[in-house]
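Handout, page 2. Input:
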Amino acid sequence: MDELVKKVVKGKIDFHDVQKFTDSGKAVEVRRKALEELTRTKLDHIGRYSIDLGFATNRNIDNPIGVTQVPVGVAGPMKVNGENAKGSFYVPLATTEGALVASVNRGMRAITLSGGCNVRILHEGMTRAPLFKVKNLAEAVKFKEWANSNFYKLKELMEEDKFLKLKEVQPFISGRHIFLRFVCDTSDAMGMNMITIGLEKVIEFIEKENKGVECLALSGNMCTDKKPSAVNFILGRGRSVSADVVIPKKIAKGVLKTAPERMAEVNYGKNFIGSARAGVLGGFNAHVANPIAALYIATGQDPAQIMNSAMAITSVEKEGDGVYFSIFMPSIECGALGGGMNLPTQKEALQVIGCYGPGDPPGSNARKFAEIACATALAGEISLISALAAGHLAKAHDRLGRGKG
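Output:
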């Protein structure tokens, strides 16, 4: 092992080639020791972990040297009245922000004491939109009509994977460029790899059957993946989910420490006027990215998809002597298996909320996760808007140690 370390330090062996000379587990230690020598940095904590990095090599990580550990807290219980998530849930959140878990927990308590929040999935469909180029606009329209009339052949080719179902193909034309936005049911997987593999055969068939049609890119950004976008906000991607709850005045005063009318006023000024004035894309909310990022990191979702998943509209209205809260999240991209969700710590976090693995019926675990994610985001919104309305935000962060060394 020492000889391998020396060769890596001297540049005779690249980091990614180490496992050619030893097993993948020992390769992790070789890289780490070489990096310590190269950077004169002790990696004592990065080198302590319980997961099998040999197993994760190439599946989840390239050139592994260890792990970064993020503290995981738990919020809850939160009562959820969903179609897939029914009952009380403890939700694991991975974050380094001192006030976040406490804030979300307070929102969950308000929700639970109010009888729970209702959650519904309004639309489902993971997307990938390959970009095609033709001779001119007339040919683009002709190709669009061909795609529409051959939908069931494209569906047959896509569905060679039994867990993948093609729901529709949405065409978008711009001059000689045409995007075909494939919308798919991916069962309990987040599904991007599944769709990408399926599309390879579809594209091959399209180019064979249509002279002059060239696929420029398997992903043409009309999907849209890992970027907040109007198309996802309007048409949805992954799962479009909404949740709501009515919080009585007594709970607003006792738990949230503020008045219903004050929360409604703060939400209108901050989330609607403030967001509109700033030209925020998909951001008519207080801080949905915060709890969603923490939930995604804890459970092994793709963190880059927080970009879409955190788009949301938070509404607050006075209702009777209480307050009505709702949230709409058009693009929750998530899964219950595959990718980082199979790593042991992430798997355990998913098991805490009862969402790991294939659901019965298929897709139900991913739907359950989406409902819990939406409810968690709602809890975060309730708590932050209340803290702003009560003037407690700075005090809470100071008390909970945010920014303290």
